């Protein structure tokens, strides 16, 4: 009987000891004393899980809203075409290609940061527009004539296809690429600003020569339509990828 009493007394002492330890831990938290690592980990887990769930719910709502906008304002999931060009995409990069007589024509642009949320909106749809800069390469024999263009709004437009135009920011001739089609131009190649050119040469080279190859206001409008739709699809994909990452 005495042995049983001693065992119970020992158990009670252990229990009291645990209660005291818990009280000390709680007091330490209230007084700002650093907690042990296991307690910190438990606190982090308890605070992280609700945040992840809240973030996932917010991402789901945003994805649903953006897809609804795509359906109502961007004419569905299929991006519009650009007349006469074969379109290839790789992430944010877009490549347009076509032939013109004995010339091969490439157009490159990237939709990253192409939308200015405080800038232009589609008058009919109320959607922020993507206006990416373009690089045009006209390849013949072993050379390529290149133009770097900035898209801009045409304030004098009277029709939808005239709303957008381009400015030539830079132009140059470089050797034809030997590897990938968008191979970087050597630093030794001289390039000139499109701002400083004789007015007659400006009209012949920047307007007539490029228009003869399909680079006109209609082309600009189609690029803006495509880029706006494609940039939006990339944004939705980014949100979806983030949701998958957070959910792991």
Automatic annotation (TrEMBL):
- A GO cellular-component term linked to this record: mitochondrial matrix
Its protein name is Complement component 1 Q subcomponent-binding protein, mitochondrial
Return the similarity comment: Belongs to the MAM33 family.
The top of its lineage is: Eukaryota, Metazoa, Ecdysozoa, Nematoda, Chromadorea
Gene Ontology biological-process annotations? cytosolic ribosome assembly
């Amino acid at each position: 009987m005495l042995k049983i009493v001693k065992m119970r007394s020992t158990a009670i002492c252990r229990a009291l000891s645990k209660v005291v330890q818990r009280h000390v831990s709680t007091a330490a938290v209230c007084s700002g004393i650093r907690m042990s690592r296991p307690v910190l980990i438990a606190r982090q887990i308890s605070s992280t899980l609700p945040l992840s769930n809240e973030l996932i719910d917010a991402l789901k709502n945003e994805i649903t809203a953006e897809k609804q906008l795509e359906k109502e304002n961007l004419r569905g999931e299929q991006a519009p075409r650009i007349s006469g060009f074969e379109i290839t995409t790789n992430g944010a990069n877009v490549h347009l290609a076509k032939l013109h007589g004995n010339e091969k024509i490439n157009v490159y642009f990237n939709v990253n940061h192409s939308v200015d949320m405080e800038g232009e909106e589609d008058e009919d749809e109320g959607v922020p527009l993507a206006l990416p800069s373009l690089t045009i390469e006209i390849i013949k024999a072993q050379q390529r004539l290149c133009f770097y263009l900035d898209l801009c709004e045409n304030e004098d437009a009277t029709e939808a296809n005239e709303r957008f135009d381009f400015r030539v920011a830079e132009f140059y001739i470089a050797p034809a690429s030997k590897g990938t089609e968008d191979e970087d131009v050597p630093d030794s190649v001289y390039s000139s600003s499109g701002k400083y050119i004789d007015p007659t040469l400006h009209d012949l080279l920047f307007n007539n020569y490029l228009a003869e190859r399909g680079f006109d206001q209609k082309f600009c409008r189609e690029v803006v339509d495509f880029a706006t739709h494609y940039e939006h699809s990339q944004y939705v994909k980014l949100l979806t990828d983030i949701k998958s990452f957070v959910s792991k």
